[in-house]
Amino acid sequence: MKVTTGTDIVKIERLFPASSPLNLDDPFVKRAFSEGEQKQGKGREGEQALKAYFAARFAGKEAVFKALSVCGCGFAPQDIEVIDGASGRPEVTLSGQTREALDRFLDEYAEFLLSLDVSLSFEDEYAVAMAVAVFEKRS
Questions:
Q1: Which among 70, 86, 109, 111 is least surrounded, fewest beta carbons within 10 Å?
Q2: How deeply is 61 buried, as exposed, middle or buried, from its count of CB atoms within 10 A (0-12, 13-18, 19+)?
Q3: Are 59 and 68 in contact (CB under 8 A)?
Q4: d(C-alpha 88, C-alpha 76), whole Å
Q5: What is the DSSP track for 13-57?
Q6: How far apart are CA 76 and CA 27, in angstroms?
């Protein structure tokens, strides 16, 4: 069994300056966040809560990328979706080049991804995320 981790911290204002409202049609938002993430974000009350929501998800994407960097994938935020599951815990879905790189890595090393978990948090001006990936050899 192999365990890899990733962590990231983001200053919310670095992504979304306080001096301007968050525009959901902004090219960065459209490029970095999935439709599901954008839909969940729209449900947040208040400008700061919306900015914190997206900053935490971006930190989550970075943390997941770092945990999966063993597979040789590049950072493609649009390929890593972090949305709240039915229980409220964040859930990760991989797609695109990130998924393809992970699949090649798993095939080459005869492993499978046992679990991929991410934890998100934010307070005042920072959002932080931690990701843990657990790999196991195929028998």
A1: 86
A2: buried
A3: no
A4: 25
A5: HHHS-TTS---TT-HHHHHHS-HHHHHHHHT--SHHHHHHHHHHH
A6: 15
Per-residue pLDDT of the chain in tens (139 residues, 90 and over written 9)? 999 999 999 999 999 998 999 988 999 999 999 999 999 998 888 999 999 999 999 999 999 999 999 888 889 999 999 999 999 999 999 999 999 999 999 999 888 999 999 999 999 999 999 999 999 998 7
Cβ-contact 82, 37 below 8 angstroms: yes
Predicted local distance difference test score (pLDDT) of residue 39: 94
Instruction: Provide the 3-class DSSP secondary structure of residue 76.
Output: coil
Give me the DSSP letters along 78-124: GGEEEEE-TTSSEEEEE-HHHHHHHHHHHHHTTEEEEEEEEEEEEET
Count of alpha carbons within 13 Å of 57, Cβ hemisphere only? 29
pTM surpassing 0.85? Answer: yes
Per the CB < 8 A criterion, the answer to whether 99 and 71 are in contact is: no
Tokens coding 90? 């964040």
